[in-house]
Specification:
This protein is mainly α and 168 residues long. It contains seven helices and no strands.
Length: 168
């Protein structure tokens, strides 16, 4: 894809695009920044502010995340794909994942999981759950919106098993 292709797709001239962005990489960084800001805000807000039982909170957070992957899967996959080669994208993506993992950790503690530093305590489990969700939605979004919903259901089943099937 060329800068000309991008300019044409958004309905402006190539020169006008260069007025706002110096390169394709700058366009990617801007798209990722906008997308992860929304993902981070929506997911963390649901995880920390939803008043319901923890299994409902996690289900709501997964639905919020699934909606983001359905709506912005191309940009989110690009964020994953370019994280290893574009430091700004890596900072945006990894920082968002860390914020979401911390919020999941708080929810796990609320559900009765220890806040310690062992492999079965909230911080370690929340990181594992966060990255599992990311990879599951990444793969599913490559296929279809229906597969994103299947991934959401599978991640929710894993959550319930991590919590011992609890409903509190």
């Amino acid at each position: 894809m060329t800068v000309g292709d991008i300019a044409e797709a958004v309905g402006i001239t190539r020169g006008a695009l260069y007025f706002y962005f110096a390169s394709k990489q700058d366009i990617l960084i801007a798209l990722v920044a906008r997308t992860v800001q929304s993902l981070r805000q929506d997911s963390v807000e649901v995880l920390l502010d939803h008043p319901g039982p923890v299994h409902e909170v996690f289900a709501a957070a997964l639905e919020t995340t699934a909606a983001q992957w359905r709506d912005h899967g191309v940009v989110m996959r690009a964020a994953v794909d370019f994280s290893s080669s574009v430091p700004e994208v890596d900072q945006l993506w990894t920082g968002t994942a860390q914020a979401i993992a911390e919020a999941i950790g708080e929810l796990l503690v609320r559900a009765g999981t220890s806040a310690g530093d062992g492999p079965d305590d909230a911080p370690a489990l929340s990181r594992a759950l966060c990255w599992m969700v990311e990879r599951s939605f990444y793969q599913a979004s490559r296929v279809s919106a229906e597969e994103v919903d299947v991934a959401r259901q599978s991640c929710q089943a894993v959550w319930l098993r991590v919590q011992g099937g609890m409903t509190g």
